[in-house]
């Protein structure tokens, strides 16, 4: 796969935006899916002139996508890369004894359902083209217990890892690669806003738990995403890749 279209969900901020920028800089066209349509005008201005072009689509993946035309695609057996980046956790952790089943389902809907929908939608195109890459953005919370993260989020991200591996096994013979990235604590706008609420002592204590003694950057995750989309990653299948500065070492 030397030329393709990248479909990025959650593309208007954080890791999704870093991935979008990386693809565009490398001359890859992007379909950027995001609910936050208010960011699109500024992003169009910021990203104009880059070698690749981005088509921004305001969409609720869980509610508004029923066919490939809903995200600007057709049936031309295009070579596609799908980056599933929609997800998130509650700001305040709910202890397990206070979690409701609705809380669990809500996290599954946010962290698992968008990837499920987009993979089912795009896999027939990839299978027909005998080429395709799916890169699912999971979390370090799927790999280790984090004291400030609820069970609902950890379970949802672990389910995404399992789904990724199952799809990887089913579609490997069709030329489709499926891999997962588990970022650690990444300095996105959302995470930095939370860290600004901490005291200096809390920040120092949290950073001391990370061997590299710093947060990761969205751009560092985007570099791995781009590698997984490239021909150089051809023998990676069903991998779960940890990018966390040493916070979790399998």
Q: Which descriptors would you attach to this protein?
A:
single chain, 250 residues, alpha/beta, Rossmann fold, 7-stranded parallel beta sheet, 9 helices, 40% helix, globular
Structure commentary:
The protein has 250 residues and is an alpha/beta fold. The protein has one domain (5-186, 218-243): NAD(P)-binding Rossmann-like Domain (Rossmann fold). It has 9 helices and 7 strands. It has a 7-stranded parallel beta sheet, sandwiched between helices. Helix 1 (14-25) packs across helix 9 (218-229). It is globular and about 55 Å long. The model has no long low-confidence stretch (mean pLDDT 94).
How would you sum up this structure in a few lines?
This protein is an alpha/beta fold. Helix content is 40%, strand content 16%. Strands 3-2-1-4-5-6-7 form a seven-stranded parallel beta sheet, sandwiched between helices.
pLDDT < 50 stretches: none
Distance between the termini: 31 Å
Name given to the CATH homologous superfamily = NAD(P)-binding Rossmann-like Domain
State mean pLDDT (0 to 100 scale): 94
Question: What is the count of DSSP helices, taking H or I runs of 4+ residues?
Answer: 9
Task: Assign the CATH topology.
Answer: Rossmann fold
Strands of the biggest beta sheet: in what spatial order?
A: 3-2-1-4-5-6-7
CATH class term: Alpha Beta
Provide the domain count: 1
User: How helix-rich are the residues, as a percent range?
Assistant: 40-55%
What is the CATH architecture term? Answer: 3-Layer(aba) Sandwich
Q: What portion of the residues fall into strands of 2 or more residues?
A: 15-25%
Structural class: alpha/beta
Number of strands: 7
